[in-house]
Amino acid sequence: MSVQELAEISRFYGANPDYVIAGGGNTSFKDKDNLYIKASGTSLARAEPGDFVKMDRAALAKIWKKTYPSDPDARESAVLADMKAARVPGEEKKRPSVETLLHDILPFSFVVHTHPSLVNGLTCSQNGEEAAKELFKDDFIWIPSINPGYVLSKAVKDAMDKYRAEKGKAPGIIFLQNHGVFAGSDSVDGVKAVYKRIMETIGGRIKRQPRNCRPGPRFHFNHTLMKELISLAEKLNGSGPWFVRFLRNPEIKKFTASRGSFAPLSSAFTPDHIVYAGSDPFFADSPAGLEEALKAYMQKTGVFPKTIALKGIGVFGLASSDKAAKNAVELFNDAAKVAIYSESFGGPRFMPEDQIRFINNWEVERYRSSISR
C-alpha cells in the first residue's frame, strides 16, 4: 500500500510544472529493510509502483563504510556499481537514482525531492541562505552548491548528523543551493504539509511575480527562422533529424531585448537546466551572421547549442527529437522564472564553472540526457 501511496504522491508533484519539469526530481518510500526509489530516467508525472527500484537498506548502509577513489569519475562509477549491487533480486533492469544514498539516510518514510522555480529563486540567489534563515529559522539545513552524487549525499549526511546532535531531531527541509529542495515526513499528507509551508513562506517574500510566463501547449511559432535554424543545424552539426520549438512570452521578450538584459540567463542555475537546456545559452543580436556566430560558439564550447536566443525575437530549442526540443524551451522558461524570483533575494547566482563542467561530463547526466530524447 505504501508503494502505491508513493506512486500517487509522485504523480501529484510530478504532473505539476510548478514543481517538476521533464525528468527532474525523485521520490522514495522506506521501511526497516527496503528503500523504494524512483528509477533513473522515469517520469514522476506517470509514476506507477513498478517504476521504483527496491533496494536493500543493509547493503546501502555498507557503502558508507567503504573508501572510494578521489578521482570524481572513478568514485562515481564505483559508487554506482555498489548501488546497483544493493538492488534486491529481480530489480536488475532498473537503474537507481543517483540520489539513492541521500534518500536512504533521511529518517522519514516518504521523501520528495523537487526543483520548483519558486524555491530555486531562493536557492539560486545571492542571499538565499541568509533569507532562508530569516524565513525558516532553524527548521532546515542548507547545503552549499556541490557536485551531485556521492559527495552531495555525504555533505547532507554530515550536515544532518550535526543538526540532529544539536537539535535532537532530523530536519524536515533540506535546501540545496543551485539544485532544489528535499522534504520528508512519515506520511504523504505530512510531505504535502511541509511543501505547503515551503511554498507559502517563500511566496510571501516574492516582490515580483513572472508575468504570463507559462508556455502554451504548442508554444509560439516562427516558421521562417525555424527552417533556417534546422538548415544551420544540419550543416554545422549533422543531418539530423532536427526538431525545433519556439518560445516567446512577456518575460522572455524582456530578457531577449538586448545582450545586457539576457545576462541573468547567460549561464546555468541547476543541473536540470544543463541537462535539458544546456549550460551555455546562445544569444545573437540578429539572424544576420548567425552561421558564423554559431561556428564561433561551437569552437568555444565543442557542442551545438540546445537553446538559441535571438534579440527581440525569442528563444528556440533545437534537438534530435520534438520531446527534447520542448524540454529545452521549458527549462529555459523555468530559468527565466528562477531569475525573476531571485530578484527578491539579492539577484541570481549561477552554478560554479567547475560544477558545470562536472555535470557536462558526468556519465549519469549524459544518461539522463540520452533518455530524454
Rg measurement, Å: 21 Å
Q: What proportion of the residues is helical, as a percent range?
A: 40-55%
Name the beta content range: 5-15%
What top-tier CATH class of the largest domain fits best? Alpha Beta
Oligomer: single chain
Please provide the ordered H/E string of secondary-structure elements.
HEEEHHHEHHEHEEHHEHHEHEEHHH
Contiguous uncertain segments of 5+ residues = none
CATH architectural group of the largest domain = 3-Layer(aba) Sandwich
Give an account of the 3D structure.
The protein has two domains: 2-203, L-fuculose-1-phosphate Aldolase (3-Layer(aba) Sandwich), CATH 3.40.225.10; 223-371, 3-Layer(aba) Sandwich (L-fuculose-1-phosphate Aldolase), CATH 3.40.225.10. The protein has 15 helices and eleven strands. It has helices spanning 2-14, 57-63, 72-85, 100-105, 117-123, 128-136, 150-167, 188-203, 223-237, 250-255, 271-277, 290-301, 322-342, 353-361, 363-371; strands spanning 26-30, 34-38, 52-56, 110-114, 141-143, 173-176, 180-185, 243-247, 282-284, 307-310, 314-319. A seven-stranded mixed sheet has the order 3-2-1-4-7-6-5, sandwiched between helices. Strand 9, helix 12 and strand 10 (307-310) form a beta-alpha-beta unit. Helix 5 crosses helix 13 and helix 11 (271-277) packs antiparallel against helix 13. The protein is globular and about 60 Å long.
